[in-house]
Design brief:
about 180 residues; mainly alpha
Length: about 180
């Protein structure tokens, strides 16, 4: 059983303290967190954690950048990308590496890695924290699925390739219109 020092999932009955405990565990001791993380069940807790991280990030980034379009983009991308990324990870892990993984556990890794969003709004340091998010994802995939680090890194690299191709296709199809921010 997980403790406050080693939480395994968000506990909505004590939301704020649980949110802080989970965020600290993911950011400071990801291997420990992922080794005790709940791997199946409803998505309610990880989605609540994800949305909370996205809201905090969006609010703080909005205060700094004061761009309505950026706020909208942060909300939409912050909430949808972990679902899509988990699907791409899942396909790569099951099809390429024949890993016995589940979409649910893969989504949970992405949802809890969103804790990095709590600090990526910091000017200049944000991109470095995004690199740390990649590290957390590697640790999560390696720990949950007991795969080699090279397979976790390859999974993330191939996912970035998929996103790059999708971005280019969308850009070419829409003439760049899809990247124009509203507002």
């Amino acid at each position: 059983m997980a403790s406050a020092e080693n939480p395994s999932d968000l506990d909505p009955s004590r939301f704020l303290s649980s949110f802080i405990d989970v965020a600290k565990a993911v950011l400071l001791t990801p291997k420990v967190f992922f080794s005790v993380m709940v791997r199946q069940g409803a998505f309610t807790h990880p989605v609540t954690f994800l949305v909370s991280c996205v809201l905090v990030h969006t609010f703080l980034a909005g205060l700094i950048h004061r761009a309505e379009g950026l706020v909208f983009q942060n909300l939409v991308m912050g909430i949808t990308h972990p679902f899509l990324t988990a699907g791409i990870f899942f396909l790569i892990l099951t099809r390429l590496f024949h890993s016995p993984c589940t979409y649910g556990a893969t989504f949970r890794i992405n949802a809890y890695a969103s804790a990095v969003g709590l600090v990526t709004w910091i000017p200049v340091a944000g991109p470095f924290f995004e690199l740390y998010r990649l590290y957390i994802l590697v640790v999560g995939l390696r720990t949950i699925y007991e795969i080699k680090t090279s397979r976790a890194v390859t999974t993330i690299f191939l996912t970035l390739v998929v996103y790059t191709v999708m971005f280019r296709v969308l850009y070419n199809v829409t003439g760049g219109q899809f990247i124009k921010l509203p507002g």
